[in-house]
Design brief:
The complex is a heterodimer of chains A (about 260) and B (about 260). With about 260 residues, chain A is mainly alpha-helical. Chain A is about 80% helix and about 0% strand. Classes of the chains: A mainly alpha (about 260), B alpha/beta (about 260). At the A-B interface, α7 and α8 of A face β6, α3 and α5 of B. The complex binds adenosine-5'-diphosphate (ADP) and magnesium ion (MG).
């Protein structure tokens, strides 16, 4: 059995089969717990109810519009954060003076919980889209800055030195070495933080919102419609899975040089 | 020609002690003059300050005292007039072989057409024609170092610095690389400083071998190698070569033993 030898790679088919197998196990356990009546439906809906409720949501209550709104908010806030944070992170990683200036503040700001800003942001920006985008922005921007700065700061020193001996100046080193060397890592950071952005958007939608997946979930709670809640959660999971895959494909296409 | 190509004047280097440890003198004040088109090898046990000396010449490290003059001008930081080949593989992994070799030329703003010609010329010289579009990860260690040599030479530096460039290669490849580099030098005549801890390599390549002492490094012997050019690998079995080797082995042995007992 090579399946249980440490660090032994597994084949592609085995990998896919195992990956799907856990989903199956998960659903079976869930079905067993709920359909048997062990867990009552007002606490957790069974998979069949969940699918039925989801279907009703999609066909009768225009839930696809809510999904669209939420995706838009996540992407909007996240892209804003990335546009600000990636260049800032690169500067922080590259220039120790910028790092000394910003790092303490960003490290502090990173621990400010985005959800705690929701009431304040409602005061500032009302309950419109700006407020939702700002929650996601605040939740993502400091994380991206710090992680990008660390990645850039850890660039192989010998590559930088090689560039200097080939005549590169400071700005060239940033543009022609630090950025391309860290592009794959930066893409990976964005993938990770996008995942976190999804948690912020739901929090933002739980309070003072009239649309979005989070709004649907909070409404369903009032109705004790656990099937709808679970459906909403699973939709988020699926969107996350798809965006993850998209990131991985993009990484493979653009950063093939990095793969062994 | 007036004056040497490179002058090292009283250059020493002491690394400040970190975490309560005493400062570490890597290099004692060193004097050295190198004439144009000479091939110098620097031979010494590991840890004796060879890389430190070379990095100071490259401008990647600063001397604690003294200065380095290239063509009479004091060196202040790294620049394209001093090409460097490192022991570690330092090709840019995201660039193809051709783009790696073109890196310095693009930096200098050379027109693309001219770049293409220069790149082809140097890839030809290091025997890598046909590998233009390969990525570094697709190359063997020897091929990577040949690309690194082409990358440094394509910039047409005043002096070429090599820090144990073949140190990580197997013996056979290493021998072939020595011949290749020496062949290029015999045709083009560049000023070269080549650092190594391998005695045969030091003799085979050099017109002058400098032997360094164990840490703190100091040049303790300066030996001319008068073997005729072009040199063929068979020269390694000649009596003259053996005599030099015997002498250098003795010089190095003393230092290696000192390094082993003081470390
Ligand atoms: N940046 C540094 N900081 C502290 N000590 C260093 C540094 N670089 C080199 N040294 C020390 O200086 C000595 C000489 O190093 P080096 O020049 O790399 O030797 P060599 O290349 O001959 O093997 C070694 O003892 C090494 O540990
Ligand atoms: Mg060294």
């Amino acid at each position: 059995m090579t399946l249980f030898r440490p660090l032994e790679p597994v084949g592609r088919t085995t990998r896919i089969v195992l990956g799907i197998a856990f989903f199956v196990v998960f659903f079976l356990a869930w079905a067993a717990a709920t359909l048997s009546g062990y867990v009552p439906i007002i606490f957790l809906a069974d998979p069949i109810t969940m699918v039925q409720d989801g279907w009703v949501l999609l066909t009768k209550f225009g839930f696809s519009r809510d999904i669209g709104v939420t995706v838009w908010r996540v992407l909007g806030g996240f892209i804003l954060a990335a546009v600000v944070a990636v260049p800032l992170g690169i500067l922080m990683g590259a220039y120790k003076s910028v790092e000394a200036f910003l790092e303490p503040f960003v490290s502090f700001a990173r621990y400010l919980p985005a959800s705690a800003f929701v009431p304040l942001l409602i005061l500032w920006a009302g309950i419109g889209e700006t407020q939702k985008l700002l929650v996601i922005f605040i939740g993502s921007v400091f994380q991206i800055v710090l992680m990008v700065a660390v990645a850039v700061g850890n660039t192989r020193r010998d590559l930088v030195e090689a560039a200097y001996t080939l005549g590169a100046g400071s700005s060239s080193v940033v543009r022609r070495v630090l950025i391309p060397a860290n592009a794959p890592e930066i893409a990976e950071i964005l993938r990770l933080v996008l995942g976190w952005a999804w948690t912020y958007v739901i929090v933002a939608e739980l309070i003072g919102s009239s649309s979005g997946i989070g709004h649907m979930i909070i409404e369903s709670q009032a109705l004790m419609a656990t099937g709808q809640i679970v459906f909403g959660i699973i939709v988020i999971g699926l969107i996350g899975l798809v965006s993850d895959l998209a990131f991985k494909v993009v990484n493979r296409v653009f950063f093939g040089w990095r793969l062994a | 020609m007036t004056g040497p190509k490179l002058r090292i004047e009283g250059v020493s280097r002491t690394f400040p002690g970190v975490a309560g440890r005493p400062p570490l003198q890597a290099l004692e004040p060193t004097e050295l003059s190198i004439v144009e088109n000479d091939f110098i090898t620097v031979l010494g046990p590991s840890g004796c300050g060879k890389s430190t000396l070379l990095r100071i010449v490259a401008g990647l490290d600063r001397p604690s005292a003294g200065r380095v003059l290239l063509d009479g001008r004091a060196i202040d930081g790294p620049g394209p007039d001093r090409g460097m080949v490192f022991q570690s593989y330092t090709l840019f992994p995201w660039l193809t072989v051709a783009d790696n070799v073109a890196f310095g030329l693009r930096e200098a703003g050379v027109p693309e057409r001219e770049i293409a010609e220069t790149v082809a010329e140097y890839l030809e010289k290091v025997g890598l024609r046909g590998f233009e579009n390969h990525l570094p990860k697709q190359l063997s260690g020897g091929m990577q170092q040949r690309t690194a040599i082409a990358r440094a030479l394509a910039n047409d530096p005043e002096i070429l610095l090599l820090d144990e460039p073949f140190g990580a290669l197997d013996n056979q490849t290493r021998g072939l690389m020595q011949e290749l580099l020496l062949g290029i030098w015999e045709r083009e005549r560049k000023t070269v400083i080549f650092v190594t801890h391998d005695i045969e390599e030091a003799i085979f390549m050099a017109s002058r071998v400098l032997v360094m002492t164990a840490r703190p490094g100091r040049i303790k012997a300066d030996i001319a190698v008068e073997l005729p050019h072009p040199r063929h690998y068979t020269v390694k079995t000649s009596p003259e070569f053996s005599a030099l080797k015997a002498r250098l082995t003795e010089e190095i042995r003393v230092e290696a033993m000192r390094a082993a007992t003081t470390a």
